Amino acid sequence: MKKQLLQFLQSMEHKAKKEGYVYQYEDLDQFKAIIKEHQLKTVEELFDKGLLDALTELYEQAFAEELKIYCSKQTTYAFQNGLYRRSMHSHSLEEQATNVLSILAGGSLNKEANVIDVVRYHQARYYQGFVNFYSDQKEYAIASQEFVHAKFAHLLEEDDAVAMQYVHDAVFGENNVALLTHSLIQSIVRSNNMKAVEWLGQLLIAAQRQEGTRQAILENADRGTPQVLIYFIKLIKEHDLLRFSAVQRAVETWIGLQYVVEDKKIIQKLLDIAYDVLANGADIEPLVQSEDAIKNYAALWAIATLQVQNIEPALQQLLQGKKHQILSALYFAHATNLEPYLRFHILDVIMAHDDLDILTMAIQDIFPIYMHSKYHFYDRSIHPDYFKHYPKTLIPRLEQIVELMKKQEYTLQGKPFPWIHYTLTKEYIINGTMLLAVAWNDHDYIMKIYNNRQALTPNQRENLLGFMVEQLKMPIANTFLIECLQERGTRDLALELIKKKKEPLDDAQI
Q1: Contacts of 133 (CB under 8 A, 6+ apart)
Q2: 3-state secondary structure 469-499
Q3: Angle 245-255/211-219 helices, nearest 10 degrees?
């Protein structure tokens, strides 16, 4: 595996340098494929089975050992990224793959970087691709953001005097607004240096009229270890910081409430219950068995915040429980972006229940997110393994659900929480069956949809046409193409597909 990893890293770095240090998502996909091919489960396995040797050959042993330290520590941090990240932790290499490769990227730059000077004199900026970089005044990359975060956090953990002094000046100095960047805060919370973390806490409490400072600190408070998050939750509770809107928004992000809950009492209740589990080791079982959906949700969040792999027993118990418990568990999966890890449990719910409230929430996320839009999806890429383990009985089951719906759409409102609002449409379900049939190369079912095409919307007929002409290349595709030329709703796409065809229509068709 060493040779495979070495070739991959060399190729990735060569391409990135040519493109101005832009690391493409295709590289990330290839890295994940290597992990999957060799069935690697942990960061330690990855390094022991070839990555350490590959990095040693690519750079030198000392730097390879350094990278191993930083990558290994990623498993102690929240693994999700982006706008909809949540405070979940995982030791799984699969979930940490993006963070690990982001630290490895740009190794030749990172090896020479003085990270304290980088943090002191430069700003991180957005790059295309999955890796961001600190850059100089000419906007040349000088070190990757993830590497700088990781190394600066390590320096703080080692109680490095220069790093600690810089943090002290950033927190307590007169110019702290300029120095205390989001990047620096992330390094502090990841360091697990409680002295530096408590400096942030002091600033949080003192910043009574500085909404931006509170927001900057708490937006990043969940990016480190669970222990650091517990510390900040304690401060919020002790000083009633939920009275500030920035604090409320940050907590909603951690918990997965997506800024839709305005009632402070609900957020306070969730936080109090979860804190009792996280800080005091309160028993989960009464929360899971509770008739109170808030307690059900708080239990799941507390478990996943400590280690997402431990969530399955409680989740299964809820999904086999009463209706409000099922809805609470389904909402948790949706709100915390954990559907990819819990999808098979959700599919079991779909197969077992006829209650449209349950089905409306469960079906929201079994197909790619673009399926909710009114635009084409026939030309959207989808990972070949996306539906690999979906049961073939899902298509007839979805047909049954369409029959259960008395109208074109069904709305779930106010269950199990007052702010809930989800809509399920027959169009979305039929689109899903079409996508499944294409993924499984089920021409018979596509023909079943085709024979019922007059009942489809123009958008659905366009998707069906695109699949039949471009992907499945079915014999009847040309006949359908001619038919679509005669309809206003599908004419433009039909003309576009004719222009792209390698084999022209025959004279009779023209």
Answers
A1: 21, 106, 109, 124, 125, 127, 141, 142, 143, 144, 145
A2: HHHCCCCCHHHHHHHHHCCCCCHHHHHHHHH
A3: 10
Are 324 and 415 in contact, with CB atoms under 8 Å apart?
yes
Q: Does the pTM exceed 0.70?
A: yes
CA distance 489 to 389: 35
Can you tell me the distance from the alpha carbon of 324 to that of 434, in angstroms, rounded to the nearest whole number?
31
- Segment 176-190, tens digit of pLDDT: 666 788 889 999 999
| Alpha-carbon distances of 3 from 65, 195, 321, rounded to whole Å | 18, 43, 50
Token pair for residue 230? 């517990």
Cβ–Cβ contacts within 10 Å for residue 230, how many?
16
3-state secondary structure of 279: helix
Residues 6+ apart with CB under 8 A from 25: 129, 130
Mean pLDDT of 330-357: 88
CA pair distance 287, 293, nearest whole angstrom = 9
pLDDT tens digits for 360-418? 999 998 998 888 887 889 999 887 788 988 999 999 999 999 999 999 999 999 999 99
Rg of the chain in Å (alpha carbons)? 26
| pLDDT score at 295 | 97
**Residue 488 CB-density burial (10 A; 0-12 exposed, 13-18 middle, 19+ buried):** exposed
Residue 181: both structure tokens together: 């960047």
Residue 184 token pair: 């620096």
- Identify the burial level of 373 via C-beta atoms within 10 angstroms of its C-beta, where 0-12 means exposed, 13-18 middle and 19 or more buried: exposed
53 vs 63: CA distance, rounded Å: 11
DSSP reduced 3-state for 344: helix
Length in residues, the chain = 510
Map tokens 């209740």 to a residue.
Answer: 269
Lowest mean per-residue pLDDT among 7-21, 69-83, 213-227: 69-83
Q: Choose the weakest-confidence range: 324-333, 356-365, 455-464, 499-508.
A: 499-508
Q: pLDDT tens-digit profile of 417-428?
A: 999 999 999 999
Contact between 330 and 349 (Cβ < 8 Å): yes
- Taking the C-alpha atoms of residue 334 and residue 314, their distance in angstroms, rounded to an integer, is 16
Nearest CA to 427 out of 373, 492, 357 is that of 373
